Predict the structure.
Amino acid sequence: GGVLGKEIEVLVQDNKSQNREARNIAEKLIGEGVVAVIGPATSGNVQAEVPVLTDAKIPVIAPAATAPEVTYDEKTDTVKEYVFRVCFIDPDQSQVMAQYILDELGLKKGAMMVNQEDEYSIGLGNAFREYFTTNGGEIVAEEGFITSDTAFKSQLTSISSKNPEFIYVP
């Protein structure tokens, strides 16, 4: 077994979907001599671990991290050397959703509700708005919420007064 005559040992870790824990685990794995990391699942967790793994020249494969900045450094306009993605990015999925609403459903007037505490929701919302409005759609209302919210009457009342044809909630 193995690859190129070397045995592979899989180490499973639980970062509890917390950025600090993801970084701590990365530091621990470096100490254990890992040669590569697959994961974690979220963009924030990957971004938390990448600096220490990159410093150690350990490649990271991000199977589900969709934020563009996981693999691309906008400040330096470079692709990150040790980080690889095997999924789509936020702008792609937002574009597909906007394109479907415009072309297949024929809707042009929408509203958005974005979780203001969630980078994923914010990223999807921004990308959706840009594509939708650039391609003939109009966002007539935008409302925010936070993860712990349980009532949305005020946001929905405000949105309803603008008569949108749909509400996008990333």
About this structure: The helical segments are 19-31, 43-55, 90-104, 119-134, 153-160.
